[in-house]
Amino acid sequence: MPESLDFTFLDLVDRYWAQFLGCSPEMLRKEKTQLLPHAGLGDYAGCYIIEFGAAPVVSLPPDEVESYRDIIAGWQPGVVRTAAIAQAAFHDRIARIIGPAFIGYTDTRLFKQLTCGDARLLTDDDEKAVEILRNACQAEEWDHGGSDFRPSEMVGVIRGEQLVAVASYEVWGERIAHISIISHPDARGLGHATTAVSKLTRIVLERDLVPQYRTLQANQPSMAIARRLAFVQYATSMAIRFRPLNANPSGSGTG
């Protein structure tokens, strides 16, 4: 449990994840693995594993829970970081494994703000610049770090006349601001993404929201942003997308 995170923030975040998983906040940090049917994940065809510093909480489609109950009951803390354990459980059902992923939060006391002279909230006049940035990025990159144009919830870093990075947020639940970041392929490694996230995090805190930062742990530049701005690790997750039951594992339809 991230004891250094503000208690009010921690309580709010715990309640969000408990509702998302369909359980009580007390179930998030049990010594024994918890297996639950999807709640917030709706009809997601796959397994979601998340650890809050204790045994994993595992979410499956409702009609798959009993099929895997005995296998998953034996999972221990750390499974979320070990893809081989999921592979042994689900075999040919797996289309893709996403994770492990870092999920972190910061608060007004912990947050380490940067000098953000080049970063500002976007306005309606910036829509074309955002579209230019989008076209410069690969589609998958934009899906992961970009967002629809919402200027009041977007911070951009502008060098010369070029928009080189955009950080945006989307409110999850009551007050969690999920932050995304995208930067221009020709302007990466120069600190622009960190600057944009720093400015946006300050705005999020001023709006009485809880900043959330999520990224794959293998993405070292993104993890460096989390460390630089003092996002505290709250949980680690892994998503296993299933193939349809009638899919041919050797075929191309991985879903």
Briefly say what this structure is.
Helices cover 29% and strands 28% of the residues. The protein contains seven helices and ten strands.
Tell me the number of helical segments per DSSP (H or I, 4 or more residues long). 7
The CATH architecture category of the largest domain equals 3-Layer(aba) Sandwich
Question: Which CATH top level class of the largest domain fits?
Answer: Alpha Beta
Widest sheet: strand ordering: 1-3-2-10-4-9-8-7-6-5
* Rg value: 19 Å
CATH topology label of the largest domain: Aminopeptidase
Shape by Cα distribution: globular
Overall domain count: 2
Number of strands: 10
Percent in strands: 25-35%
Query: CATH superfamily of the largest domain, please?
Result: Gcn5-related N-acetyltransferase (GNAT)
Q: pLDDT below 50 for ≥5 consecutive residues: which ranges?
A: 251-255
Cα-to-Cα separation, first versus last residue: 35 Å
Largest sheet: 10 strands, mixed
**What structural category do the secondary elements indicate?**
alpha+beta
Mean pLDDT score: 92
Order of helices and strands: HEEEHHEEHHEEEHEHE
Task: Give the helix proportion (percent range).
Answer: 25-40%
